[in-house]
Amino acid sequence: MMRRYLVVLLICWLNLKASPAQTKAEPSQSNSSCRIETTNYEGWSAEQLSNHWLQLVVVPQNGGRLMQVIFAGHPYLFVNPKYEGKYLPPDPSHWFNYGGDKLWLLPEGNDDEQHWVGNSDLLDDGPYAFRKVSEGQECEIELTGPADPQTGLQIRRTIHLDADSPRIRFHATMQNKTGHVIEWSMQSVSQYDTADHSASARSNRNFWTFTPANPTSGYLNRYHVRFGPAENPAVSVRDDGLFALHYVHLAAELWLDSTPGWLAVVDGDSRYAMVERFRYEKNDAYPGKASVIFWTNGPEMRLNSEGEPSLTIGGDGIPYYLEAEINSPLVQLRPGETRDLDTEWFPTRAGGEFHGVADAGIVVRPLQATRLATGHIRLSGSFGVFFAGRLVAHLYDEHGTSVGTMPLTQVDPVDLVVLESELTPPAKPSRISLHLEGANGLDRGSLQEVRIEEIQVGAAENH
């Protein structure tokens, strides 16, 4: 009996030891993992990449489109309700605007074989082969399109998502599949939803895009109106050098020779933003000099045969969307040669203002640093961040020598960072740089760097 009792105790003890390990092995979507799974999206057979922050929905059959990006529950991209769940075989005489994000070519037109006619041909609408490359600590998929006899190109694209951030990385490759030299520019085309979802059949009145205007631009007014009214009150170059486009439902195409390598899309109503980054190749030629293009959809202003102006409904009717387009340089490809286009997307939170893009996020309200009579330093500002982690103040004296660092607060891309704090510095710094350190201690770069202002005596007394 004693021996049997001991055996029972031993079995119970082994079960208790095994139980935690079994629980730990159960799959879960944690902050340190990402997954790829087949899903149904609006009636389409789709593939979804997801982590703690994001869901990316890809529809390989419909031209390999990234159909939707959902960050903290917020969908960014336009999905055309007219074509939801549908697939229409390639037809160069029509354009099936499904929405989402895709790859196109420049130059466009029908002048000769060196121009791409566009529409829903094999390159735009052909089914792409899907391949899962990796999953777990990082997720990556590969989409490969059919070889296109008209342009001579085959396009391949990988989409990469890490487990520890909402950053999305794209690597696109075009390859010459002919036996002769061809010349093209590859274009990333993202259609953002600009509808006001709180009021039916109305556009979002607080939707903006930004990119740095080139101070030595080759365009008149530092941008070029490719289509639409030359005098457009929705377009401006601000005093801080940023090109700003306020969405209105009117067809317009605007070209910019922007060089810093970023554009930002800001929804002032929902307070969400998306930053798209690219590398500007200063020694290469861009199509029409444009590295960035914006298109707003809507009624088109045209002249009839008698020179009388009129507004047409446009090719895609009622839906509201804005296209943000990034171009690769225009390159000649010998048979078999390739050219790549690498871009990164950073979803984050926004506010009522926008003052630019930094390494680690966007500047919503600029950083201010003031030295108080007590010797403390008052910090204020607000930011949308690209990574989770903590903000750290880097302090420098008047000679540029570091006098230390001070941790400030924990941050996450899903929350707007509102900074209102006081520091007690170890010395008397004259300059401060606000850095973001990732959860693993990796320095993600600066949000903003400013000089520390001395508080005025009168202001101190009033305070």
Explain what this protein looks like in three dimensions.
The protein is mainly beta. 7% of the residues lie in helices and 46% in strands. Strands 7-8-9-10-24-18-17-12-15-14 form a ten-stranded antiparallel sheet, with no helix packed on it. Strands 6, 11, 13, 16, 19, 22 and 23 form a seven-stranded antiparallel sheet that branches. A five-stranded antiparallel sheet has the order 1-2-3-4-5, with no helix packed on it. A hairpin with a 3-residue loop joins strand 7 (129-134) and strand 8. The longest helix has 23 residues, at 2-24. It is globular, with a radius of gyration of 26 Å. It starts with a helix and ends with a helix. Mean pLDDT is 90; it is low at 1-30.
Task: Pick out its properties.
463 residues, mainly beta, ten-stranded antiparallel sheet, 3 helices, 7% helix, globular, disordered N terminus
Quick recap:
7% of the residues lie in helices and 46% in strands. It is mainly β and 463 residues long.
Helix content: under 10%
Distance between the termini: 83 Å
Number of helices: 3
Main pleated sheet: 10 strands, antiparallel
Q: In terms of per-residue confidence, which ranges show pLDDT below 50 for 5 or more consecutive residues?
A: 1-30
* Spatial arrangement of strands, main beta sheet: 7-8-9-10-24-18-17-12-15-14
- Secondary structure category: mainly beta
The coarse overall form would be globular
User: How many runs of DSSP E, i.e. beta strands?
Assistant: 32
Strand content: over 45%
What is the radius of gyration?
26 Å
Mean pLDDT reading: 90
